[in-house]
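Supplementary Methods. Inverse-folding protocol.

Structures were first reduced to a discrete structure-token string of length 113. This string, shown here, constituted the complete conditioning input.
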């Protein structure tokens, strides 16, 4: 019986900790995978990551250079996939079907063009 009580207490603590990991007031956290076909190097990865992380409600952004995909976790109440794509395009990269901003593209380091 003592072991059962300890197990129950441990499970309750674990479940409580998992819920507290989400930022308060953020609402539902969504995940999006966005294709970034024009990403070429680590500088590209850094630019896209910084661009997304500066957006309100974005919790995490991880670019897979090999697969040319960025995974983004964000507060669904503050951002949408469309706004994420627009931010990436505004930084000079294609994002899914959204074409890059040519002026921003020309400002990227040579290795990223």
């Amino acid at each position: 019986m003592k072991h059962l009580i300890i197990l129950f207490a441990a499970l309750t603590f674990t479940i409580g900790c998992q819920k507290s990991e989400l930022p308060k007031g953020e609402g539902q956290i969504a995940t999006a995978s966005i294709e970034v076909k024009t990403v070429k190097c680590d500088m590209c990865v850094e630019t896209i990551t910084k661009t997304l992380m500066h957006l309100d409600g974005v919790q995490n952004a991880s670019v897979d250079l090999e697969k040319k995909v960025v995974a983004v976790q964000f507060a669904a109440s503050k951002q949408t996939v469309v706004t994420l794509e627009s931010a990436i395009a505004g930084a000079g990269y294609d994002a899914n079907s959204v074409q890059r901003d040519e002026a921003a593209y020309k400002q990227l380091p040579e290795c990223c063009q």
